[in-house]
Design a protein that fits this description.
It is a single chain. The protein is mostly helical. The chain is built from four helices and no strands. The longest helix is centred in the first third of the chain and has 22 residues. The chain starts with a helix and ends in a 7-residue tail after the last helix.
């Protein structure tokens, strides 16, 4: 069930997550594209869904603090659901 929620959030927010991360200078456009492509490849291969932030963190392209910063920006913009 958690994976379904991750996938739903990802489909709605990941392009925004990646854009904010690029806009802040945390990652390059190429890194964003590679992470999004990896996420799509996982989905098409029926592998467990991973959020873009997790992929970027696993690759060492973002720190945990940078992931938190991007998520905070999404929340402030009203683009991230409150739970």
């Amino acid at each position: 069930m958690g994976n379904d929620i991750d996938k739903e959030l990802s489909e709605k927010y990941c392009p925004r997550f990646a854009k904010i991360a690029v806009d802040k200078g945390f990652i390059t456009v190429q890194q964003a594209k590679e992470a999004l492509a990896e996420q799509m490849d996982d989905n098409l291969s029926n592998k467990p869904h991973r959020l873009i932030g997790r992929i970027l963190l696993e690759k060492g392209w973002l720190t945990a603090l940078q992931v938190e910063t991007v998520l905070n920006d999404l929340f402030k913009q009203g683009k991230y659901p409150q739970t």
